[in-house]
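hiii so my PI (J.) wants the whole complex modelled not just the main chain, which honestly fair. so below is everything: four entries, each one labled with what it is. i double checked the lines twice but i was tired so who knows lol
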Amino acid sequence: MKLWQKNNQTMDSFIESFETKGDLVLDQQLTKYDVYGSIAQVKMLEKIGIVTKKEEETAITGLLEILALHKKGKFILEQGDEDIHTKIENFLTEKYGEVGKKIHTGRSRNDQVLTDLRLYTKEHLLFIWEELLELISSFYAFSKQYEFVPMPGYTHMQKAMPSSVGMWGASFTESLLDSLYQLKTAHELNDKSPLGSAAGYGAPLHLDREYTAKLLGFENVQINSLYCQNSRGKIESLILATLSTILQDINKFATDVLLFTTAEFNYFTVSNDLCTGSSIMPQKGNVDLAELLRSKVHIVTGNYLQIIGISGNLPSGYNRDVQDTKKPLMESLELTLDCIRVANILIHKLHPQEDKMKQALTPEIYATHSVLQLVGQGMPFREAYQIIKEKLDDNLTHNPEQTIKQSHHLGGTGNLSLGRYFAIVKHEKERYNKEMGKFTAAITSLLTCTQHETEKLAINC
Amino acid sequence: MKLWQKNNQTMDSFIESFETKGDLVLDQQLTKYDVYGSIAQVKMLEKIGIVTKKEEETAITGLLEILALHKKGKFILEQGDEDIHTKIENFLTEKYGEVGKKIHTGRSRNDQVLTDLRLYTKEHLLFIWEELLELISSFYAFSKQYEFVPMPGYTHMQKAMPSSVGMWGASFTESLLDSLYQLKTAHELNDKSPLGSAAGYGAPLHLDREYTAKLLGFENVQINSLYCQNSRGKIESLILATLSTILQDINKFATDVLLFTTAEFNYFTVSNDLCTGSSIMPQKGNVDLAELLRSKVHIVTGNYLQIIGISGNLPSGYNRDVQDTKKPLMESLELTLDCIRVANILIHKLHPQEDKMKQALTPEIYATHSVLQLVGQGMPFREAYQIIKEKLDDNLTHNPEQTIKQSHHLGGTGNLSLGRYFAIVKHEKERYNKEMGKFTAAITSLLTCTQHETEKLAINC
Amino acid sequence: MKLWQKNNQTMDSFIESFETKGDLVLDQQLTKYDVYGSIAQVKMLEKIGIVTKKEEETAITGLLEILALHKKGKFILEQGDEDIHTKIENFLTEKYGEVGKKIHTGRSRNDQVLTDLRLYTKEHLLFIWEELLELISSFYAFSKQYEFVPMPGYTHMQKAMPSSVGMWGASFTESLLDSLYQLKTAHELNDKSPLGSAAGYGAPLHLDREYTAKLLGFENVQINSLYCQNSRGKIESLILATLSTILQDINKFATDVLLFTTAEFNYFTVSNDLCTGSSIMPQKGNVDLAELLRSKVHIVTGNYLQIIGISGNLPSGYNRDVQDTKKPLMESLELTLDCIRVANILIHKLHPQEDKMKQALTPEIYATHSVLQLVGQGMPFREAYQIIKEKLDDNLTHNPEQTIKQSHHLGGTGNLSLGRYFAIVKHEKERYNKEMGKFTAAITSLLTCTQHETEKLAINC
Amino acid sequence: MKLWQKNNQTMDSFIESFETKGDLVLDQQLTKYDVYGSIAQVKMLEKIGIVTKKEEETAITGLLEILALHKKGKFILEQGDEDIHTKIENFLTEKYGEVGKKIHTGRSRNDQVLTDLRLYTKEHLLFIWEELLELISSFYAFSKQYEFVPMPGYTHMQKAMPSSVGMWGASFTESLLDSLYQLKTAHELNDKSPLGSAAGYGAPLHLDREYTAKLLGFENVQINSLYCQNSRGKIESLILATLSTILQDINKFATDVLLFTTAEFNYFTVSNDLCTGSSIMPQKGNVDLAELLRSKVHIVTGNYLQIIGISGNLPSGYNRDVQDTKKPLMESLELTLDCIRVANILIHKLHPQEDKMKQALTPEIYATHSVLQLVGQGMPFREAYQIIKEKLDDNLTHNPEQTIKQSHHLGGTGNLSLGRYFAIVKHEKERYNKEMGKFTAAITSLLTCTQHETEKLAINC
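here's the output for the full assembly
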C-alpha cells in the first residue's frame, strides 16, 4: 500500500509499472543507504524528543534486520511496491509497530531519496578516488620503466618529432592527476546532507540537521531547504562531467592502444589473455577490451545530457522528472569504476615493441632537430626551417636515445620530471585515506552504537 | 604566405576558406593574448641566449605596435591569412626584420594557440568570477529584504507547503555559491602554461618554461608536453560543464520568473522597461529577457557536446579537429558572462506581489503543519497524516508569518542563516581580488618593463 | 566455451564480465530474432547445397526447441556465455551434432547480431506505428469533442489571443501525424537485410542474400557488405531521432497538462486514479504521470548522443564499440512504446474545465480582435494597433464562442479542418495493416513450413 | 522604433543588445526570404480585399527595392533595429506611406520568421540535395574505377579479410543514398507554409493560406495554427538529425582517409595541393582537410542538442527561447553544404596505392577463405575453422584478384552491383530537377508578375 493512499483508491497497473518499473531496480541498490539515513533520523528524533529511547532502539533493531535481510538478498522490491522508503516504513510498522509510523516525522521522500543518492555517490566517488590513484601509480610506473625508450611522436596522425614511451605514459599520469583534482571538488559538493529539508520547505520542528549530517559522515549541511531539491540534476551533472574527464583520459589511452597495436604500427602488443577472437576468421586476436573502454565516455556523456535535459526548464521545487536522473547517475558511477580497473589491467599487459618504434624513427622525423641545430649555430629559426625544408631528402638521421635526451626543458622527453607526480600521488593517497577513514568511522559508529541489537540479530554490519 | 609554403605551392581557395573562415574571426579576438605570449617568448629567448637584448627590444616594440593597431581596429585578419600567429610573424619580419624570423624558435602554433586560449579563458573566468559574486550579493540582498515574506512552496507544480520569498531567493544564493566553488577548480586547472611544449613533444633547447609561465601570470606549468596537446578538449569540456552549472542556476531562476509572472500566478512583476511587446497583439508585455536567459544553458550544453565529440576517439597528439573547439569555448565564456549580468539586472527589477502570495496560501497548504501539530501532541506521524487526510475540507488555516517562522531548524523558512552566505561572499571577494590582482600585475609588468617603447608608440597597454 | 578459443586459452573473469555483463541481458531479448535468422540461414544453406535437406530439418527442429525453451524462460544466458549466437551454436552442436557446426557457414556474428537488431527494431517500430495511430485517433476524438470550447491562447506564457480546446488537441494530432511520416522513413531504412555480409566483407560462397531477406520479411537487401557494418550507429541514430520527434510531441503535451492542471490555471483536471500522493503532505494529488512522460524525451536524446558519440571518428568495418549501441537503441524503442500508451491513457482522463477557461478570457485577450475590427472598417493595421494600445483599459470584451468561430481561415479556431486528419488516419491504418500483415506472414511462414517439427515439440511458434 | 513601443518607453541598451546581438546577423541572411513572404502576403491581402490593387503595387515596388538594396549590401541591420520584419515595415511606411502600415495585417512576427526559416531551409536543403547527388556520383565513379583493386578489409582495426577499393568506395555510395532518402523526408516535412497562423492562433480574417503557400512555392499548408508554433524546434531537430546522417558518412570517410594516409598504412595519397604544413616541422604534409571534415558531425550534433534542449519542457505557443534555435539551424545547413563540397574535392584527389595494399594482403588475411575451401570439400564450418586456426603459420596465400572475385554473392567484393546505384542516382537527379524547378518557378513568378516595377528599379530579381 502506498503511504498516501486512502483505502478506496486504486491505480492502473500498467501506469504503476510505467512509474516504477526501472526505478525499483535502482532503489534496491539504495537499500543500504536508506537504512543508514533512517537510523540517523530516528536517533535525531530521539534527541529532540519525538521518539523515546526505547522506540529508537526498536526502530534501529528493525532497520538492522532489514539491512541483514538485504545482504542475504531477502529484502526484495517487487512490482506493487512504490519505492524503498515505503517498503521500509511498511515493514517496520507491520513488524515493530508504532515506531514505524514515526520514522517519517520531519522528512519527506524528497529529502530521503536525495540523502540516499548522496551517500551512494559519496561511497562510489571514494571507490573511484582509490582506484584512480592505483591507475595513476600504474601509469607512473610504466613511464618510469620506459622513460627513455624512443617512440615516434605524432601530429595530424603523421610522424612529427621523436618522442618516448615515457612521455606517452606520463601524459596519462598528469592527465589523470588533473581529473583527480576535479574529482575532489565534485566530492566536496556532493558531501552535504540534505536530510531535514523535507519536501523542500523544511518542517515546523526542532530538527537537528547538523546532528544527522554528522551521524552520516557528511562534511556539511546543505542549508537552504529549497536548494536541496533544486540541486538535484545540477550536482549530478557536475559529477558526471567529472567522471567524463576520467573517461576522456581512458578514451585516449584506449584509442592509442588500438592504433599502436595495429599490424601496421605494431608499437605495442597486448598479452594474449586479454584478446578475443572471431567466430568466422580464425586468425584474429582483437583487443576488444580497448574498444569497450573507448566507448564508455560516450555512454557517460549521454547520461550527462539526460540529466541536464531532464532538469532544464523546470521550476523550483521537487518535480518527479528527476526520478529519471537516478539511473544515469548510478550507472555512470559504476561504469567509471569498472573502466578504471580495466584500464589498470590493460596498462599492465601492454608491451612496448622497442625495436619497431626505433625503426619507425625514419630520418624526416628529425627535421625539426636539424632546424634547431642550425638555430644553435646562430641562424634565425625561419631561415633554418626553409633550408631544411629544401633538404628533406638528405639524410637527417640522429641518434634516437641522444635526441630525446636533448629536450631537457621541463616536460621535454629528456626531463619528464616524474618525481613530481610521485610526490603528488603519495600526498593524495594520504588525503584519500583520511577522507575514507572519516566516512568509514562515521558509518561504523552509526551501526555499532547499537551493538547490542546487532548481536541479537547475529548480523555483521 | 603560409609559414610552411614553398614558393610554388598553391591551395584551392574554396578549401582555404573552408579551413579558416570562421576561425579568423576567433583569432581576431585572440590577438591580444598572442602578443602577450610572443613577448614572453622573446624575453625567454633572450634569457637563454637565442636572441640578443637588442633583438628582444625590437621584437617587443613590434609586438606592442601590433597591440596598438589591434586596439584601433587596424590589425585585421582577412581571407588568405592563415591565422593570427602567422600574421604576427609575417608583420614582424616585414617591418622589423630578422627578429621576426626568430620569435617562433622553440614553439609551434600548437602550443601558441593553446597559450592564447588559456589566457583568454583565464581572463574571462576572472570576469565571470567577479560578476558571479555580484549576482550572489544581489540574491543575498533580495532574500534579506524579503526574508519573512510568505509565499507558497511547490512540488510537482502544485502547492505543497508554505515557503517564503526569502527562502526562494536564498536558494539561488547558495546554489550560485556552489557554482562558484566549482568555478575556482576549473580556473585552477586552466591556470597552467603550455608554452614550450611546442608541437607536443618539446624541443631540443634550454627553454625556460617556468619563466614564461611566470611572465604570463600563470600559476603553474603544464608539465608533460604531450599532455598539453591531449588536454585540449578535456580542460575545455570541464570549463563548459562549470559554466553550465551557473547557467543551470540562471535557467531555474528564469523559469521561475516566467511562471510566477503569469497572470495566473502573479507573484512577481517585472519593471516595464525590461518587457517587450508584440507586433500583432497590443496588450502584450512579455518578459522575453527571462526566456532568453532560460535558453542559454542549452546553448552551452550543446557546445559542451561539440567539444567532447570532436576530441573523442582521437589518438594522442595534436589533431586539427580541435580547431573547432575554439568557437564553443569562446562563445560559452562570453555568453555566460552576459547572462550573469542580465540575471543581475532582472533580480533588481523583480517585485514580489506580497498580497497575491498571501492570498495563494489557501488552507490545504497547511495540511502538513496540522499533521505536525498532532505529532507535537504525541501522535505518531503516519496516524496524524491519515487523520488530516480525511479532514482536508476542514479549515486548516494558519497564520502565514507565524507559520514560516516555526520552521526554525537550519535552512528552514524561519532560519535561513543568511549571515553564513554573507560571510562567504565577503571572503570570496577578497580571494577574487587577490587572484585578479596577481594576473593584472603580471600582464602590466609584462608590458611596462618596456615602458620606453610604449611611450614612443604613444600607446596605453 | 567461446567459438574462437583454443583449448589452452583463458580469460580474466573480471574482464569477461566487463565485456559482456550488461550485454547478456540484451542478448536474452534477441533470442527470438536470432532463432529466426538462423532458420533463414539454414534454409538458404540447404538451397545452395551446403547442408542437406535432412540437416536443415534437424537444425530447424533444434532452433524451434530453443524458441520453445526461451518462451518458457528456460534458455537463459549466464555469465561465462559470450553471447546469444555462441550459446545457440553450442546448444545445437551438443544436442543435434554436426549441423550445429555448419550453421555459421557464410556468416559472422557481425552480420548476425545486426540482423537480430534489425528484426527487433522492425517489430518494435511496427508496434509503435500501431500505438501511434491509436494515440492520434484519441487526440482527433478529443479535439472533435471540444472543437469549439473557448480557451485562452498563450505566447511567452502570457495570455495572447482566444484559442480553443479543439485547436489545442488538434495541434497534437497534426504534430503526431508528422512524426508518423518520419517513422515510416526510419522503418524503410531499417527494413533491409544485412545477412550474408558476414564480417563486413562477404564470403566466397553462393550465398543467396535475397532469399534470406525474403524469408525474414525484409523489404530489401542492404547490398554493400562493408556498408552493412558501417551503417551500425548511423541507422540507429536516425531511428532514435525519429522516436525523439514522437517524444517531443508527448513532452509538450505533458508540459501543457502540468501547467494547465495547476491550481492557478485549473483549465483541466485529471482523473483521480492517475494521480499520486505525498508521503508528508496529506493534501497532495499530483499528476506524476505527466512528469514522467515529460522526462522521457531527454532519456532518448541522451541515448541518441551515446550512439552518435560511440560511432563517431571510427574507421570503416566492425569495431566492438558498437556493442554499446544496443542498449540505447533497445531501451529507446521500449520507452517510446510505453510513453505512447501512457499518453493515450492520459488524454482519455483529461477533463477540460470549460467555465474556468471562459473566465480566463479576460478583456485584454481580445485586443487583436478589436484591432482587426478597425481594420475591417478600413483603417491600416498599424494605426488600429496603436489606437487599441492606448485604449486597453476600455472594455474590449467579445463573445468567446463567436470570436473563435470568426477565425475561419484554414487552421484557424473556426476552421480546424479535423476531417483532413481523419482521412489521413484512416489511410494510414490501412497502410499499417498491410505492412504488419506482410511481416507476420513472413515470420509465420518461416516457422510453419516446419509444422511437422513444431507438432513434435508441441510448441506454438 | 519597435512596432510595439509607446512613445515614452525606453529599454536598457545592454539588455537590448543581449536580446538581439547575434540575432541580427542571422536576420540579415533572412532578408530575401522576408521580402518573398511579404510580397505573397500583400498579394493575398489584395485578393481578399484588405489592400487595393494600387497599394499592392506600391508595396511590391518597395519590397523589391529592399531586395535590390540588400543585394548591394545597402540594407543593413544595426544595433537598435529589433529584427528584419520591423526594419522592413518601418522602411515601407517611411518611404511608401500607408501601405507599410497594412502589410502586417493578419500575421505576426511569429509566423513571419517561421516562414522565412522554412524558405531558407527549403532552399538550402535543395542545394544540399544537389551537391549530395554530385558526391554520390563521385563515389560511384571512384568505386567503378577501382572496382577490383584488392585492399585489406579490417575489423577491430585489425586485418580481417580481403576487400577491395571498389567495395570501400561503394560503401559510401550506398550510405549516402540512404542519407538522401532521409533528406527527402525532412524536406517534405519542412515544405509546409505556416504563413497565416499569425501569433499561433490565427486571425479573424478571410486569410487565404493556400494562396500564399502556392505563391511561395510550398507544397502544403501547415494547417493547425498552434502546431505551426509548436513545431519550431521539432522540425528543426529532425532536419539536423538528417544533416547528421550525411556528416556521419563524411566523418567515416575522413576517418578512413586519415588512417589510410598514415605512413604506416600508406594505402592512399592525397594530392599535394590539399595538404598543409607545419610552422615548426619542415617535413610535414598533413591532410588537415580531412580532420576538419571529421569534426563537423560533432558541431551539428551539438547544434541538434541545443535545439532539443531549448524547446524541451516548454508549454504550447510561441516562447522566445526558440529565437536561439535559428543559429544552430542555419549554421548546420551551411556547414553541411560546405562539407559535401569539400568531401567531393577530396575523393577526386585521393589516389589508391595499389601496390602497398597488395603487399598488405599478408597470408593470415586469407584464413577464412581457407576455411571455406574446406567447407567446399564437405567439412562442417566449425571444424574447418578449428583446423585452420591450428595451421595459421602455414602459408595460406591466395591470389588477391581471384579471391575478391570469388565473393560473388550480392554485395560481395565480386558482385558490388554498382549498376543499381547508377540507376537510382539517375532517377534521383530527375526527381531533384523537378523539385528545384517547381520552387524556382514559384519564386520567379512571385517576382516577375511585377516586372513593370522591377524595370523601373532596374533590378534583376
